[in-house]
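During data preparation, a discrete fold description was generated, and the record follows.
___
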Amino acid sequence: MKRSGLLHPELSALVARAGHTQTIVLADTGLPIPAGTPCIELGVTAGLPALLDVLRAVLSELVIEGATVAAETRQESPGWYAELCSVLDGAPAKRPAEISHEELKAALPSALAVVRTGEATPYANVILHCGVNF
């Protein structure tokens, strides 16, 4: 058994195999995930686990060079967006890039995987752009 870090076996393996320029999507409970796109289901109930808690755990092990959200996130869920920016504060891109929600959904098939959380905040989805540790 692992002593610390990511304990979920699929999530730990996902981070271990992530390569530079690949993407991992952390998703709310309502994001439609295209058939054939690898998905790790973490949701237990509405709000559990919260996406930002999963993000903190993932960032403890994953090197990222940036993050992307739907522009609607900042507009529709400003409190959640502010918290996201606070979590990303230690990352190279302190503020996430923004694309439309439709563009975010179109990017899902090219992701290494989508991690679906129990997050129930509108537009609470984050594309993580994997970096390199050297």
User: Anything to note?
Assistant: The chain has five helices and six strands. The two ends are 29 Å apart (CA to CA).
